């Protein structure tokens, strides 16, 4: 069972319990050993993602989150993942990972002072920096979309636009790569001296 199918089955199990099902679960709980019967049964809230194992999904939630409202951010990402699953009929977390990988920049432009001038120099990014930059760009491009749509729908549509190469995040990545290519002559070794 994959992580997403487990999450989907958890979401399906979030439906309100019928009285008949509630009676059978309480009957099963009374016939179980005393240590198990004392545990309270607490169902997760509807519409909120179950606890997620994927670090990419957690990174997305943390970048969507504002003012510490993580449940709201989870609900927004849950709506986006549902839209992605409906549109593509594929595992939404793998589609999300593919979109983030497509937007990830390899470089960032850094201003380096040489004498009185500040020269733009391309600097390579680590894998974590690339992922975070891509997530932020996708979220910013989604916020610039139609304001009438809910945030989750906008993020889902933006991810689909990234996959179709029709996103502002992709254009931003291409622009950074072009300027890195133009300014590649500004890259120099940091320390040319041999240390003794």
Structure description:
This protein has helices spanning 3-12, 19-31, 34-37, 55-64, 70-88, 92-103, 127-143, 151-163, 168-182; strands spanning 107-114, 117-124. With 196 residues, the chain is mostly helical. It folds into two domains: 1-46, no CATH class; 48-186, Ribosomal protein S7/S5 (Ribosomal Protein S7, Orthogonal Bundle). Helix 7 (127-143) crosses helix 8.
Structural class: mainly alpha
Distance between the termini: 57 Å
What is the typical, i.e. mean, pLDDT?
78
Tell me the CATH architecture of the largest domain.
Orthogonal Bundle
Question: What is the element string, with H for helices and E for strands?
Answer: HHHHHHEEHHH
Total number of helical segments? 9
Q: How many domains, in number, for the residues?
A: 2
What global shape is seen? Answer: elongated
Radius of gyration: 23 Å
Uncertain regions: pLDDT < 50 for 5+ in a row?
4-12, 14-29, 31-37
How do the strands line up in the largest sheet?
A: 1-2
Beta-strand content estimate: 5-15%
CATH topology of the largest domain: Ribosomal Protein S7
CATH class membership of the largest domain: Mainly Alpha
Question: Using DSSP, what is the number of strands?
Answer: 2
CATH H level, superfamily name of the largest domain = Ribosomal protein S7/S5
Largest sheet: 2 strands, antiparallel
Helix content: 55-70%
């Amino acid at each position: 069972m994959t992580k997403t199918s487990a999450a989907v089955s958890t979401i399906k199990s979030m439906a309100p319990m019928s009285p008949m099902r509630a009676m059978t679960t309480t009957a099963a709980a009374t016939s179980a050993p005393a240590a198990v019967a004392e545990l309270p049964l607490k169902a997760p809230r509807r519409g909120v993602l179950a606890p997620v194992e994927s670090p990419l999904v957690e990174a997305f939630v943390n970048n969507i989150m504002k003012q510490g409202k993580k449940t709201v951010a989870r609900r927004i990402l849950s709506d986006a993942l549902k839209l992605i699953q409906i549109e593509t009929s594929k595992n939404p977390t793998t589609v999300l990972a593919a979109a983030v990988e497509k937007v990830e920049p390899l470089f960032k432009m850094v201003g380096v002072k040489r004498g009185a001038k500040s020269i733009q120099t391309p600097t390579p990014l680590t894998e974590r920096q690339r992922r975070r930059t891509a997530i932020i760009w996708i979220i910013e491009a989604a916020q610039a979309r139609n304001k009438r749509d809910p945030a989750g729908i906008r993020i889902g549509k933006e991810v689909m636009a990234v996959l179709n190469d029709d996103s502002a995040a992709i254009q931003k990545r291409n622009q950074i790569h072009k300027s890195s290519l133009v300014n590649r002559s500004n890259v120099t070794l940091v320390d040319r001296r041999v240390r003794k």
